[in-house]
Design goal:
Length: 310
Amino acid sequence: MDQRATALLRQHRWNPGDILGAGMEGTVIELSRDEVAKVWHGRNPTDLHALLSFGSALEQSPIPFRCSRVIAIVEDGDLAVTIEQRVPGRSLRPDALPNAPLVTGDEIRLMGDALAGLSQATAVDLNALPILPAEKPFSHTSSFGVSLADLAERRFERRPELLRKEIGDIDALVTELLCRLRDLPESDSKCLIHGDLIPANVLIEDGEVGGVVDFGFLTTVGDPQFDAAIAASSFDMYGPNARQSEQALSAAFSARFGHDAEVYSLYRAAYAVITNAYFAIDGQDGHFLWCAEMLKREDVREAIVSPPDS
Ligand SMILES: Nc1ncnc2c1ncn2[C@@H]1O[C@H](COP(=O)(O)OP(=O)(O)O)[C@@H](O)[C@H]1O
Ligand SMILES: [Mg+2]
C-alpha cells in the first residue's frame, strides 16, 4: 500500500485498513463502516475539488442506493486522497474480466436498476464536474446534444490522426454526427448520467444494487439514453460475447425505459469520438481500437448518415 497515502490519512486521524479495489485511476482503501479513501494516481488535487460540490448535490438527491460521494479531500503536494462514502457490496463484475461470459438475466436487471436509480436524480447542480479532466462541466444553458457535439468536435480536432489512419471517411462522418447530435430534441427526462457505468462500478449486496461508485468520467446531467447506451456497450468491451451482451442489454433497456435504438447508436459514436484517444499513446491501444470498431459498425454509421425521418 502507498506509504505516503497511509501516513497522510493517519495524520488526518483516519485509520486506513484493507484495499477494497483498484482501477485505472485510483486505489480504494477501507477506513470505517461508512467511509473509504481513494488514492488517486494521476489527478491533480485542484481537479478533484469539484467532486466536493458534486458530493453535496448527490447527498440531496433521491437516489435509492448509496453513491461514492466525496466528503473531504486530504492532500500533500501532488498526492491527493478523497474521503468518500462507502458503498456496500461487491462489484457486479471485476474490472477487465478476461473471457467474460454472456450477460445473465440477473445482471441485466441489476444494470437496469442502477440506471433507474440514477434517473431519480435530476437537480441541475449535479453537473458540477468537469465532463473529462481538463474540460469544463457541460453548460446549463445548452442542450445535452449540443454540449456532446461541442465536446466531440473539440476532442476530434485535438487529435484526429489516429482515427484518420483507421477510417478513411472519418472527417465527413464526424461532421454528419455533429449535425445529428445538435438536432436531437432536448430530453424531457434529463437526469444524472454516471458516464462510466461498467459492472465494476456497480456494487451488489444481497442480490440488489448496493450502490454505484467512480463518478467523474463523463458524469453530467443529460439524456438517460446516453448512460444506457454506453453501459450496454461497455459492459463487456473485449470478450467473445461482447456484442451479444450489448444486444441483450440494449433490448432490455429499450423495453424497460422506452429508449430509441438509433439514438443509442448516435451516442455510441459520440462516445467513440470523444474518448478514442483518452488513454492511447499509439493506434494499438485497446480502447482506441474498440472506439474505431464502433465507428466502423454498420448500425452506428446508418444512424449517422440517415436523417431521422427517412
Ligand atoms: N465508495 C466505495 N465503497 C466501496 N468500494 C469502493 C468504493 N469506491 C470504490 N470501491 C471499490 O474500488 C474499486 C476501484 O474504485 P474506482 O473508484 O472504481 O477506481 P477507478 O477510478 O480507478 O476505476 C471499485 O470497483 C470498487 O470495487
Ligand atoms: Mg472504476
